[in-house]
Amino acid sequence: MSTRPLSCATFVAGEFRTGGAVLERHNPATGELVATAPVADAGTVEEAVRAATEAFGSWSRTSGFERGRLLRELGRVALTRLEDLATAMTLEQGKPLDEARGEVRKFAQAMRYYGEEAERVEGRTVPNESDDFLSVVVHEPVGPVAAITPWNYPVELVGWKLGGALGAGCTIVVKPSEYTPGPAHLLAECVQEAGFPPGVVNVVHGDGEVGAALAGHPDVAKVAFTGSATTGAALFRTVHGVTPLTMELGGSCPMIVSRHADLDLAVAGAARRSFRNAGQICIAINRIYVEEPVYEEFLAGLAAATTALRVGDGYADPTVDVGPVTMAEIRDRTHRHVADALDRGGVLVAGEAEADTGGLFVTPAVVAGAPASSLLMSEETFGPAVGVAPFTSMDEAVKHANAVPGGLAAYLFTERLAETVDVARSLDFGNVGVNTVDAGIINAPYGGRRESGFGLEHGPEGLHGYLQLKHVRVRHR
Ligand code: ADP
């Protein structure tokens, strides 16, 4: 199939513009050119930050009710563009079209949620020893925000930052991934249609160099980042002075399956959370620890569920479960992790050791019995491969689960209440799903521990991260 490439533009101070160097995005399923975008030069980044800085004055004083109305309107407009947004995501990133549609709906839900939260930014009064004083603690928006976002969830991850920042009264400059310029461009069109004042939302395109120029700008009051640990670490040196940063960097996520688990539920959860979006999700299951008595049965179930997944072009074929991976680097890393696990004694129970499917399609792989030291069991693959190992005591399973540098999400399957409470408490992760692999909801905080980053998205915390406190003490007598 052939579509005209989406021609993206820079969005600064309410206006779209093109010109200068252009980046190209090719469909990972077909190799076709599907989007072009202007690469922001230093002057454009400067103008975008200036627009956000100038707009901040009046936007920060716009009532929460009005900001909330506009956010909800943005959600509504995005739903009217659902097919365009979903198509751009599938063509540029590779996830099946239906999954992409779901992501647009979740964006709209986030806009509604943050639209409502914008009305609930409440301060407090604090007692003074003397009645001559009144102390109030108020929240104020931090200022213009730089949002640097990745390609795996190109609509939702922009949405969480937009919702929190705008709801708090901040303005924003978004630098989406160079692999997915289209969805961010279409969101900018939605922003314009929703009627936001010029400069409140700006979008500049380009690679890491543009991201660094934006993050390091002295007028940026906060940098919100989702992406790789390497870039996250680099950002500490990039930001100007002591500009605050929040970062979500992913990590290697474990799943523990107890002998008291509902095995059908556990198998379905494992297949879903290991391979959805071709494993390219920060909360993907990388490592599964299964209690000995149910190990073989679980493994057979997971191998069957994985083999049943249909791999292909999720734009051309609505029955596809797993699309292409987004870039060759991920295909190569997935193969490297699987090959290393097999070299170290693991056994392939589903998938292929070496892909011969061509293009960027990678058959989902399950490896049994790889040692803890293998890449698959110790590092984030961020591709469609998962390792499974047996355990004999829950303490041992928890020790394995926690034995990685990051702590974003962990999953436990058991029907035993005592086990649930003990293990959920012991897992050193920011998000724990028990008998569910859909651990995140928009109204509960989401974020990592240790090397998975810091700062929260979702929930009231996702908005409060863009606020700063001020204590005002008034002598009124
Ligand atoms: P991933 O490819 O896993 O998403 P990256 O960290 O490479 O992770 O990319 C996430 C976002 O960070 C993208 O928008 C990318 O362009 C941007 N980026 C990459 N390198 C830098 C950098 N040195 N400074 C700022 N932003 C960067």
TrEMBL record:
Residues 23-472 form the Aldehyde dehydrogenase domain. InterPro entries: Ald_DH/histidinol_DH, Ald_DH_C, Ald_DH_CS_CYS, Ald_DH_N, Aldehyde_DH_dom, Aldehyde_DH_Superfamily. Keywords: Oxidoreductase. Pfam families: Aldedh. The keyword Cell membrane does not apply. SUPFAM superfamilies: ALDH-like. It comes from the Bacteria. This is Aldehyde dehydrogenase family protein. It comes from Georgenia alba.
